[in-house]
Amino acid sequence: MTPQEAIAALDKDIAAYGQPVTLKRGALSVETRAFVRGYKPAELIGGLKQGDSAVIFSPTGLKDWPDMKLKNGDQFVTAGKTRNIEIADPVYMGSTLVRANVTVRG
User: Fold this and answer.
1) Longest CA–CA separation in the chain, Å
2) How confident is the prediction along the chain (106 residues), in pLDDT tens digits per residue?
3) Which residues, listed in sequence order, are joined to residue 38 by a DSSP beta bridge?
4) Beta-ladder partners of 89
5) Domains annotated on the chain, with CATH
6) Three-class SS of residue 78?
7) With CB atoms counted within 10 Å of each terminal CB, which end of the chain scores lower, N or C?
């Protein structure tokens, strides 16, 4: 699978099953889509807390975000609730960003 194929597959799934979200950093605000799910009790290790959520972004959805890089302290809004990005874990195939795995809290 090429990076472009991986991104296209993720884009298709997010379009079908993702939800609208807004990313904020200072005055910057970007609307996009992402997968959002809570962590299961067995996953609450290593500093994760009940109420934290896992979020998956496609690089396509981050195209209007600075350098397509999320960082600790950026804000995440979905369903009217503002939360803070705690961990941003980019996933690359070679040198190409193919997804961003993020933990949000709040």
Assistant:
1) 38
2) 999 999 999 999 999 999 999 999 999 999 999 999 988 778 777 777 888 889 999 999 999 999 889 999 999 999 899 999 999 999 999 999 999 999 999 7
3) 53
4) 101
5) 3-105 (2.40.10)
6) strand
7) N
Chain mean position to CA 62: 9
Cα separation, 60 vs 16, in Å, equals 15
What is the C-alpha separation between 54 and 27, in angstroms, rounded?
A: 24
**By the 8 A CB rule, do 48 and 39 touch?**
yes
Question: Two tokens at 94?
Answer: 């070679």
Report the amino acid identity of residue 70. L
Contacts of 15 (CB under 8 A, 6+ apart): 33
If residue 10 lies in a helix (H) or strand (E), which one and from where to where?
helix 3-17
* C-beta neighbour count of 53 within 10 angstroms: 20
CA angle, corner 30, sides to 51 and 28, nearest 5? 100
Amino acid at 27: A
